[in-house]
Specification:
246 residues; alpha/beta; Carbamate kinase; eight-stranded mixed sheet; 9 helices; 37% helix; binds Isopentenyl phosphate
């Protein structure tokens, strides 16, 4: 049983303060993972929050619009690596053998924007008892320079290649909300919820909740979107938040 958990950038950073970790929430979510942790069975992915998105926005590139400016690539990558260090260090401080994984060195999109992210390094890391902590990152794209690879896309591609049984996205909201603000328990069709999937509330170059749901509908395994309060129950096997099952 392999679990892939994405820690949303908005959860573990102060999204409106550039390059600031939300230390209290990071500690809280790492504690919840450590309580359920089994070596070789978990992959953690994290998004950009205030470390990645504002650099990407400043340089004018995104998941779909590329750049050939090398500084644009390194500005985002280095900021994301600082955040990755904070997550890895939080796990190591709890005696979990967390190691960093950076897609920039191995992933690419082809000219049709189809993603390829070889997972053999992550698989070997799992077999060796490590906890891979994978950062959202810029990656190269044929014909476009570099584009942003979101944590949601990483969850989907690794979820497929590792045959993950449980996929969770820990977000700042308790799930996908309907027009009245209630959590939608299950989504299996994007068109049914398109009208309520609003814009993200901060600078977000990868599509906010709509992008999240679209990515997750492409995944074979069901994926849950929930907030930090539901992380412990999710890891204990309970149904929480919104389940996206394409
Ligand atoms: O926060 C994009 O990942 P997300 C992060 O998962 C960057 O959408 C590098 C801007």
């Amino acid at each position: 049983m392999t679990t892939i958990l994405k820690l949303g950038g908005s959860v573990i950073t102060e999204k409106d303060q550039p390059e600031t970790v939300d230390e209290a929430t990071l500690e809280q979510v790492v504690d919840a993972v450590v309580d359920a942790y089994e070596p070789g069975k978990f992959v953690v992915v994290h998004g950009g929050g205030s470390f990645g998105h504002h650099h990407a926005a400043k340089h004018g590139y995104s998941k779909t619009d590329g750049t050939r400016n090398a500084t644009a690539v390194t500005d985002v990558h280095r900021a994301m690596s600082v955040l990755n260090d904070a997550v890895v260090d939080a796990f190591q401080a709890r005696d979990v053998a967390a190691v960093p994984v950076s897609p920039l060195s191995v992933a690419r999109r082809d000219a049709a924007a189809t993603l390829s992210f070889p997972a053999d390094g992550v698989e070997t890391a799992l077999d060796e008892g490590f906890l891979p902590v994978v950062q959202a990152d810029p990656i190269v794209q044929e014909g476009a320079g570099a584009t942003i690879l979101s944590g949601d896309e990483i969850v989907v591609t690794l979820g497929e290649s590792l045959g993950a049984n449980r996929v969770g996205l820990c977000s700042t909201v308790p799930g996908v909300l309907d027009a009245e603000g209630n959590v939608i328990p299950e989504i299996d069709d994007f068109d049914e919820v398109a009208s309520v999937l609003g814009e993200s509330d901060s600078t977000d170059v990868t599509g906010g909740m709509a992008g999240k749901v679209q990515s997750l509908l492409a995944l074979s395994a069901p994926a849950a979107i929930f907030d930090p309060a539901a992380l412990g129950p999710f890891l204990r096997g309970e149904d929480v938040g919104t389940v996206v099952d394409g």
